[in-house]
Design the sequence.
């Protein structure tokens, strides 16, 4: 369910409010495109970096993230994030001994593009206000994709 549909039905979930606020600083098409690429790249690289420290630390990070996503209350979002987590772990495992340099390189390049996107947008990243927006970013990308595919979330 998208935000407008939910609010028209008389409610406003926390997820809807977070996405609306996040969306305020992600309106420019170039910034949005950059985020569609950079956010998944950052999440993959972050999982890879944590995995390099210790695999169980990466599993714990993903488990804590999933608890946050469950708390937001969308079954479609939660299921999608579980699929993304599994795919990310598969990619991290496929990196093998190259997990550290690949993850570090992806992380740095993706963040550079994120800041370029916000320079184009003319607004600061949402996580400067609240760190939880680092976990909202992937949901923003996911929900925008679902909306483009006409999938109700």
Sequence:
């Amino acid at each position: 369910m998208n935000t407008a549909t939910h609010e028209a039905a008389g409610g406003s979930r926390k997820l809807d409010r977070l996405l609306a606020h996040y969306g305020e600083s992600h309106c420019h098409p170039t910034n949005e495109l950059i985020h569609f690429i950079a956010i998944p790249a950052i999440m993959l690289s972050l999982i890879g970096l944590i995995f390099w420290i210790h695999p169980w630390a990466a599993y714990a990070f993903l488990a804590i993230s999933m608890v946050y996503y469950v708390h937001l209350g969308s079954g479609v979002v939660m299921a999608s994030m579980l699929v993304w987590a599994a795919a990310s772990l598969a990619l991290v495992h496929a990196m093998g001994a190259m997990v550290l340099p690949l993850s570090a390189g992806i992380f740095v390049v993706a963040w550079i593009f994120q800041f370029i996107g916000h320079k184009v947008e003319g607004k600061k990243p949402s996580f400067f206000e609240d760190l939880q927006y680092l976990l909202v970013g992937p949901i923003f990308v996911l929900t925008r994709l679902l909306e483009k595919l006409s999938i109700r979330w």
In short: Residues 1-11 have pLDDT under 50 and may be disordered. The longest helix spans residues 29-53.
